[in-house]
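Tip: read the tokens left to right.
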């Protein structure tokens, strides 16, 4: 209730004040901010995936502009020798306006990533995006199997089946598994914490059994433990998976995982749209408010 109240009033709070919350989770406004954050993490032995904020667009011109921004980001990070790759949200490239145009833009980015020897991760957005996003991923993966990956959300009832279908394609498969951040109806999504975690680990086990490269994206201690147990059970070598966490979230846990010899990648969001992004995320999922509060208190 308090979370909801706080999240509803956030758009009316001065930008400067919201930045006090957001700066812990967003690298800054410029490419240079993202590159600096990335290089600092690289120095600690952590890889990155960089995301430009700003997923809602109304015209295809904006989609084109977003693609250009990503191309510039890629040129800049490669020039600076960042050890990392890129995460993109399909709606930023027009998924909900014209899926074919969107596919064309993402293809161009993945093609460029291949030239750099890099990789593009296609984030998963709310449930209306799942089918068209998977369709685009399959099309692009057929052409660039080593340079593109997808995100699937363990809270969706369909996800286990989606993994099986993608495995049957018989191509290299690199999947980030997360719980899922959007508020979805019970009809299509598991709601209870323990149920989501149980399905998360079942999905991960399916991936390990079938040689899929999983990016284990979570800050949840029991899940991290469950994933570590599976890694041991299936004797998965450290180059066959990675852990992923969000920029600024549970840095202590991050360190522990790295110290145990696992690969770690941090998701770095940045860009001029950080204000809209922060307030929208908080409205979408008011639970984030308490995460942010907790993190701030924890940091002292
Ligand atoms: C690298 C990465 C990429 C992601 N990509 C996507 C995507 O493409 N699509 C999608 O729907 N979701 C994505 N997510 C978000 C994900 O779905 C979850 O909503 C989010 O990670 C929280 O779930 P959790 O597994 O950490 O577990 P939770 O049970 O939610 O959290 C466990 C603990 O972690 C801490 N914590 C978690 N999140 C935060 C936070 N934001 N701030 C402070 N503390 C926090 C808290 O201490 C909490 O108690 C991504 C997450 C990560 C890490």
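Filled-in amino acids:
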């Amino acid at each position: 209730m308090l979370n909801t109240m706080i999240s509803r009033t956030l758009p009316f709070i001065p930008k400067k004040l919201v930045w006090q919350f957001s700066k812990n989770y967003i690298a800054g406004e410029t490419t240079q901010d993202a590159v600096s954050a990335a290089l600092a993490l690289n120095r600690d032995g952590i890889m990155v995936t960089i995301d430009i904020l700003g997923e809602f667009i109304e015209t295809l011109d904006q989609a084109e502009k977003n693609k250009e921004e990503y191309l510039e980001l890629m040129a800049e990070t490669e020039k600076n020798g960042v050890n990392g790759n890129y995460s993109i949200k399909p709606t930023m490239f027009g998924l909900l306006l014209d899926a074919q145009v969107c596919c064309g833009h993402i293809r161009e980015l993945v093609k460029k990533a291949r030239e750099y020897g890099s990789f593009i991760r296609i984030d998963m957005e709310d449930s209306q995006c799942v089918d068209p996003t998977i369709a685009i991923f399959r099309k692009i993966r057929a052409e660039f199997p080593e340079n593109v990956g997808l995100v699937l959300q363990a809270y969706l009832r369909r996800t286990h089946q989606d993994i099986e279908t993608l495995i049957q394609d018989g191509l290299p498969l690199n999947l980030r598994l997360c719980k899922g951040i959007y508020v979805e109806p019970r009809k299509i999504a598991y709601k209870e914490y323990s149920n989501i975690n149980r399905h998360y680990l079942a999905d991960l086990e399916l991936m390990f059994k079938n040689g899929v490269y999983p990016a284990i994206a979570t800050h949840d201690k029991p899940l991290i433990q469950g994933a570590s147990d599976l890694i041991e059970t299936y004797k998965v070598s450290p180059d066959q998976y990675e852990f992923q966490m969000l920029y600024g979230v549970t840095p202590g846990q991050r360190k522990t995982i790295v110290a145990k010899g696992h690969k770690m990648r941090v998701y770095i969001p940045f860009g001029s749209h950080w204000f809209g992004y922060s307030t929208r995320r908080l409205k979408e999922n008011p639970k984030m408010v308490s995460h942010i509060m907790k993190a701030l208190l924890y940091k002292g």
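Strands lie at 47-52, 84-88, 120-122, 148-153, 174-178, 213-217, 242-246, 264-270. The chain has a mean pLDDT of 91.
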